[in-house]
């Protein structure tokens, strides 16, 4: 049986089913990143709750280490849920992972502070972050394959931008709006006492989404086609039978791409809340407004970035995004550090968020196209989660290298430039003629 036979077996989806697959893949990824952004938005508060220290940046590094702990467990979740999604379907994996992410996020809001139970507080917080990371890794296995496997080939770059980058922007927007609401309801000291807890409790929305929405999605037509035997021997194409270990060089290249692209996203959209608090001294309400507009910029930039890969080709677009990041991000951070008015701070933040997602948006489809359907969830989830575990450690390194808030600008300029160079090299090495997603 040739690969074309698999093509003819794919169930035809209606336009509504295709739209739902992409929209809810993006929404699932949005809730995944929403739970991550919650921590980033309240990092300075949590630093005092769980990791109090006389040195501000050291205390903050403790929170970012907890953030990294989640990312470290994501490859485990990617492997477990990736194999599950390849064997039992993308939809089932999405329901279980989404429900788990929401539940463990909500539990974090119930942990007493270090002043109440001592060292047990940070230990419990870290333990919950580790478990949450397994379910977050599982979200990649499903959200990053179901949508792109449901759409026509000439629109997969667009789907990549909508799901990964657009979903990221929606997640950031939701976190920003919740942050605005909660800081209004719990102003000043009340936020340090209860507000941050309410933000974690809101993670239950992810569980509700998993239970009541994802169960109604249609399964990936590519995965369903592989489950249908053809002829007496029910043989599958040779490329579909190859194990993941046969794709080790592909996985390694994908990890470098994701580390660089994800790191650039974390050091722009992810680090901006901390930067604006410590360097620009932006008030919480103003911060929430700026971050909300920045999230809209991420959505628009991601969709456009993904779509352009359909027009000019994946490799050419990625190289252009790498150059743009190398030049623009250091300049924008330099400008933001000197900005004095709220309008200037907002402008630089919006531009940083938009440019920071250039390299990130097309990663999903680039990874998808490197693996055959039978191992696509496993290959994509493993590559993505390892890369993001490494890229997500960048905020910790920046916080430690900077030592004090006055050193953040230089640390961010050097680290983002290094990541952009790594992305350019990996994009240059990415083959253009080995698309296994046909």
Quick structural gist:
The protein has 438 residues and is mainly α.
Question: Please, could you describe this protein's structure?
Answer:
This protein has 438 residues and is mainly alpha-helical. The protein has one domain: Growth Hormone, Chain: A. 77% of the residues lie in helices and 0% in strands. Helix 4 runs antiparallel to helix 20, helix 7 (120-146) crosses helix 19 (376-391) and helix 16 (314-338) packs antiparallel against helix 21 (408-429). The longest helix has 33 residues, at 56-88. The radius of gyration is 21 Å and the shape is globular. The two termini are 15 Å apart.
Defining traits:
77% helix; mainly alpha; disordered N terminus; Growth Hormone, Chain: A; globular
The amount of beta strand, in percent, is under 5%
User: What is Rg?
Assistant: 21 Å
Shape: globular
Average residue pLDDT: 85
Assign the structural class, choosing from mainly alpha, mainly beta, alpha/beta, alpha+beta, or little secondary structure.
mainly alpha
- Number of beta-strand segments: 0
Question: Could you estimate the helical fraction of the residues in percent?
Answer: over 70%
For the terminal residues, how far apart are their CA atoms?
15 Å
Give, in order, the helices and strands: HHHHHHHHHHHHHHHHHHHHH
Count of the separate structural domains: 1
List the helices and strands and how they pair.
Elements: H1 3-9, H2 15-41, H3 43-50, H4 56-88, H5 90-108, H6 114-117, H7 120-146, H8 156-185, H9 189-201, H10 204-212, H11 221-226, H12 238-241, H13 248-270, H14 272-278, H15 284-312, H16 314-338, H17 342-356, H18 363-368, H19 376-391, H20 394-402, H21 408-429
């Amino acid at each position: 049986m040739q690969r074309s036979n698999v093509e003819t077996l794919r169930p035809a989806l209606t336009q509504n089913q295709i739209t739902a697959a992409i929209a809810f893949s993006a929404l699932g990824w949005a809730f995944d990143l929403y739970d991550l952004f919650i921590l980033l938005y309240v990092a300075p508060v949590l630093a005092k709750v769980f990791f109090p220290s006389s040195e501000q940046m050291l205390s903050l590094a403790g929170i970012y280490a907890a953030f990294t702990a989640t990312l470290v467990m994501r490859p485990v979740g990617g492997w477990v849920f990736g194999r599950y999604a390849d064997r039992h379907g993308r939809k089932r994996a999405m329901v279980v992972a989404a429900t788990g992410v929401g539940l463990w996020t909500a539990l974090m809001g119930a942990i007493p502070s270090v002043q109440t139970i001592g060292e047990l507080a940070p230990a419990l917080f870290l333990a919950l972050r580790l478990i949450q990371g397994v379910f977050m890794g599982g979200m990649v296995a499903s959200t990053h394959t179901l949508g792109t496997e449901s759409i026509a080939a000439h629109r997969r770059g667009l789907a990549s931008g909508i799901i990964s980058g657009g979903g990221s922007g929606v997640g950031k927007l939701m976190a920003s709006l919740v942050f605005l609401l909660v800081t209004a309801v719990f102003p000043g000291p009340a936020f340090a006492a209860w507000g941050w807890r309410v933000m974690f409790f809101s993670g239950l929305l992810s569980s509700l989404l998993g239970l009541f929405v994802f169960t109604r999605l249609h399964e990936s037509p590519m995965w369903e086609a592989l489950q249908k035997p053809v002829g007496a021997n029910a043989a599958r194409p040779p490329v579909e039978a190859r194990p993941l270990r046969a794709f080790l060089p592909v996985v390694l290249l994908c990890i470098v791409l994701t580390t660089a692209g994800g790191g650039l996203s974390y050091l722009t959209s992810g680090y901006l809340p901390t930067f604006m608090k410590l360097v620009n001294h932006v008030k919480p309400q103003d911060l929430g407004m700026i971050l909300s507009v920045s999230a809209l910029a991420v959505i628009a930039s991601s969709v456009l970035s993904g779509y352009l890969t359909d027009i000019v080709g994946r490799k050419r677009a990625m190289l252009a995004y790498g150059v743009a990041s190398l030049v623009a991000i250091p300049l924008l951070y330099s400008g933001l550090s000197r900005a004095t008015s709220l309008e200037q701070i907002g402008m630089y933040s919006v531009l940083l968020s938009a440019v920071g997602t250039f390299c990130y948006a097309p990663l999903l489809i680039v990874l998808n196209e490197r693996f055959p359907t039978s191992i696509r969830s496993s290959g994509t989830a493993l590559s993505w989660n390892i890369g993001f575990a490494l890229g997500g450690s960048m905020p910790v390194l920046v916080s430690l290298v900077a030592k004090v808030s006055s050193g953040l600008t230089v640390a961010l300029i050097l680290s983002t430039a290094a990541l952009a160079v790594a992305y350019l090299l990996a994009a240059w090495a990415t083959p253009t003629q080995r698309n296994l997603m046909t």
